[in-house]
């Protein structure tokens, strides 16, 4: 089934693009390539890839700016690459809208594992062509429709990335239950959790900005200090 997926690889280093392209094609994926952020944005709008692997440092338009532009109207999964391992760079990438972050150099199997996990999550967000009315979770005036893959906040439809949708699905399925950052990461990213608090927190903050009237004083998505996160019933 993997040959139905189109993956866009964006990096100004031709050798890295060639390596990633070879690895992905061996797994049966279709691969599109771009060498700067401007080209990447154009390809996304015309070719509609299922996943983007995006380098941070590029000419014309870097990966962070490109990700922010893409996120204005597209929830395609984005895996960000960087030669820097500093936490601040990871935070900037995730806050811009990336779903996951991988530091160069990386093992090919780690790259493939991240790709497969993101595509599984995107499939969970799924085809929003379905019109079934069942299978929805409602907490107060927040509705997460599992069938249509939509979040309705106070009657308004809100766009989510696949990662944000999955996090909300985990939390809203058991309102009042506290989930640790590690548990959320393992359920959503489907990999072992190690030092994942900042990654989960950034995604939680992005979700809050979309559903809370005042994200600084959340009504629904709350932190239980030292323990984790909870979706409150009221």
Structure notes:
With 234 residues, the protein is of the alpha/beta class. It has two domains: 2-125, Response regulator (Rossmann fold), CATH 3.40.50.2300; 136-231, Arc Repressor Mutant, subunit A (Orthogonal Bundle). It has helices at residues 14-26, 37-47, 63-71, 87-96, 108-125, 162-173, 181-189, 197-211, and strands at residues 6-10, 30-34, 51-55, 78-82, 100-103, 136-139, 142-145, 150-153, 156-158, 221-224, 228-231. The strands form three sheets. A five-stranded parallel β-sheet has the order 2-1-3-4-5, sandwiched between helices. The protein has a four-stranded antiparallel β-sheet with strand order 6-7-8-9, covered by helices on one side. A two-stranded antiparallel sheet has the order 10-11. A hairpin with a 3-residue loop joins β10 and β11 (228-231). Mean pLDDT is 85; it is low at 126-133.
H/E order of the elements? Answer: EHEHEHEHEHEEEEHHHEE
Work out the radius of gyration. Answer: 18 Å
Helicity range: 40-55%
The CATH superfamily of the largest domain is Response regulator
Question: Which regions are unreliable across 5 or more consecutive residues at pLDDT < 50?
Answer: 126-133
The N- and C-terminal alpha carbons lie at a distance of: 42 Å
CATH fold topology of the largest domain = Rossmann fold
What is the spatial order of strands in the main beta sheet? 2-1-3-4-5
Give the CATH level 1 class of the largest domain. Alpha Beta
Number of strands: 11
Structural class call reads: alpha/beta
Average pLDDT for all residues: 85
Main beta-sheet annotation: 5 strands, parallel
Number of domains: 2
What is the overall shape? Answer: globular
């Amino acid at each position: 089934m993997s040959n139905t997926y189109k993956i866009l690889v964006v990096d100004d280093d031709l050798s890295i693009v060639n390596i990633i392209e070879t690895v992905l094609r061996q797994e049966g994926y279709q691969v599109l390539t771009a060498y700067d952020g401007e080209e990447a944005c154009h390809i996304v709008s015309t070719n509609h890839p299922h996943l983007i692997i995006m380098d941070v440092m590029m000419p014309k338009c870097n990966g962070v700016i490109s990700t922010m532009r893409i996120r204005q109207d597209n929830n395609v999964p984005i895996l960000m690459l960087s030669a820097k391992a500093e936490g601040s760079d990871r935070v900037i990438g995730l806050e811009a809208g990336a779903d996951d972050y991988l530091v160069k150099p990386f093992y090919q199997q780690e790259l493939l594992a991240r790709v497969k996990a993101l595509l599984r999550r995107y499939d969970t967000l799924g085809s929003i062509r379905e019109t079934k009315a069942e299978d929805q979770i409602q907490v107060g005036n927040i509705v997460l429709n599992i069938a249509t893959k939509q979040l309705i906040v106070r009657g308004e439809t809100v766009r989510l990335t696949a990662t944000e949708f999955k996090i909300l699905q985990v939390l809203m399925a058991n309102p009042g239950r506290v989930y640790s950052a590690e548990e959320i990461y393992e359920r959503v990213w489907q990999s072992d959790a190690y030092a994942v608090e900042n990654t989960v927190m950034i995604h939680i903050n992005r979700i809050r900005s979309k559903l809370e009237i005042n994200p600084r004083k959340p009504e629904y998505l709350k932190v239980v200090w030292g323990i984790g996160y909870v979706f409150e019933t009221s």
